[in-house]
Specification:
Layout lengths: L3 E3 L5 H5 L5 E6 L6 E6 L2 E5 L4 E5 L5 H9 L1 E7 L4 H7 L9 H4 L4 E3 L6 E3 L3 E10 L2 H7 L1 E12 L3 E2 L2 E2 L11 E5 L2 E4 L10
Antiparallel strand pairs: 1-10, 2-3, 2-6, 4-5, 5-10, 6-9, 7-8, 9-10, 11-12, 13-14
This protein binds flavin mononucleotide.
The site of flavin mononucleotide has 22 residues, from strand 3, helix 2 and helix 3.
Length: 193
């Protein structure tokens, strides 16, 4: 984690703009049990204040924990963590603690105490749930305000992903379905026509 640096919140949307598969972390406010699951469906929805939306099915334990605690973490896994991403998206934390089962090192976030993975991620966002009961019930969509963000400066620096120059094992993952992923590729910078 020595390469992690705070990300200016005005750049938080850039962490999710390109649609990486993410890991959603959460904690039971009563038992303090922790959890992590994979999510392919997340997006920024506002620049300032920085807000995001994630789609979490009612069957996921994560959904219950976020609605009970009012908080969640978003960790962006690296290409080297494809197996772990698929694994935590294939079993429920209701049955077994995934942090122990998959030997995942983590720390608690400073403000909301959501778990943040200490290995295999390029960025973290700490989010406070913005309760929208209708959207949650009807569309399984949860909105959150990003209250802090950090990223590995070797792959995200000054609001930009460094896919042209960084180590490809640090690239983001994008789910195709069925456990297949592509990793982020060549940057194309649009020029004025
Ligand atoms: C790559 C990948 C992406 C996934 N994306 C989502 C998603 O966007 N939303 C969702 O509700 N479930 C998604 N899942 C399924 C959950 O991760 C899965 O149901 C998980 O076991 C829930 O864990 P939990 O019960 O511990 O919360 C995905 C699974 C994988 C492997």
């Amino acid at each position: 984690m020595s390469h992690f640096r705070p990300v200016d919140l005005k750049h938080a949307s850039r962490l999710l703009n390109h649609g990486p598969t993410v890991l959603i972390t959460s904690r039971d406010p009563l038992s303090q049990k922790r959890n992590v699951m994979a999510a392919a469906w997340s997006t920024p929805v506002e620049f300032a204040p920085p807000r995001v939306a994630i789609v979490i099915d009612k069957s996921a334990w994560t959904r219950e924990l976020i609605e009970a605690s009012g908080a969640f973490g978003i960790c962006i896994p690296t290409a080297a963590s494809a197996d772990l991403t698929y694994a935590v998206g294939s079993v429920s934390g209701r049955e077994e603690d995934k942090f122990s089962r998959f030997s995942i090192p983590y720390r608690d976030s400073q403000t909301l105490s959501v778990p943040l993975l200490e290995e295999g991620c390029s960025a973290w966002l700490e989010c406070r749930l913005l309760p929208e009961v209708g959207a949650q019930q009807k569309y399984d969509t949860l909105f959150g305000e990003v209250i802090s963000a950090s990223a590995d400066e070797r792959i995200f620096n000054r609001g930009r992903w460094l896919f042209d120059s960084a180590d490809p094992t640090l690239f983001t993952l994008h789910h195709l379905g069925g456990g297949g992923f592509v990793s982020a590729g060549r940057i194309i910078t649009a020029k004025p026509l």
